[in-house]
Amino acid sequence: MAGFCHAYGKVLPTRWQSLANGKAKSCQLVGKAKKIKGSPCLTMAAKSYLCGTLNKIQTMIEVTDVALRQAAGEGMDAFIGVFTGAYKKEIGGEMTAGTMSLLTGEQHSLLAYQIFRDEVMEGGFCQLIQNGYGGYIFDNPFAKVMRLWGVGDLSKLVYAAKKIYDSHRDDLERERTDEEFMAMYEQYEAFDELEDEFLEKEEEYTALVAGYVDEHLELFAKIV
């Protein structure tokens, strides 16, 4: 954690000073999009696409400079939590068909990591699935995104868990009593090795995810 805080502290002043001066990439994109949108050479479809892109940029979920500075000193999980906390607030604390579209693909991927981390660390894959997150993690390209973010070992782990999930989905997701839930840990011992691996490497995975977010802040939130 100390290494992360030190590295983040080094990039923080220049990167966020740029944001404070109105030179952030999102601001540049807004200006360019406005100019292009008015061009007579664009088709209606292209103009519609640019309008949508411009709207997304202008309505990007915001997190504060103060919150990120404080979280950077607390640890990588706290840093990620600033973003995911804002996402949860945006969707009203629950994911429904009506709220899913409020987040971008990158934001969903970061939220998925936070949910995955918390659930697996607390109660393993059985808890994650019983709490209703199986589809969110395994039906979406979460594993692929982790590989693209440089967390290849986690990607492999998620794909391995997905094989178990896909093979026993109906049983894993069916409603259970407390006693039946506890019995799942014996029934699905196939998850044990994957859970142990995640617990062993969680700090490494979280550091890699936080590092990716740090290098691509504009994809995850507008800093104010």
UniProtKB/TrEMBL annotation:
Cite the DNA mimic protein DMP19 C-terminal domain residue spans from the record.
103-216
The record ties this protein, via InterPro entries, to:
DMP19_C (IPR025402)
Check the record and name the Pfam families matching this protein. Answer: DMP19
| Name this polypeptide is given | DNA mimic protein DMP19 C-terminal domain-containing protein
Highest classification ranks of the organism: Bacteria, Pseudomonadati, Bacteroidota, Bacteroidia, Bacteroidales
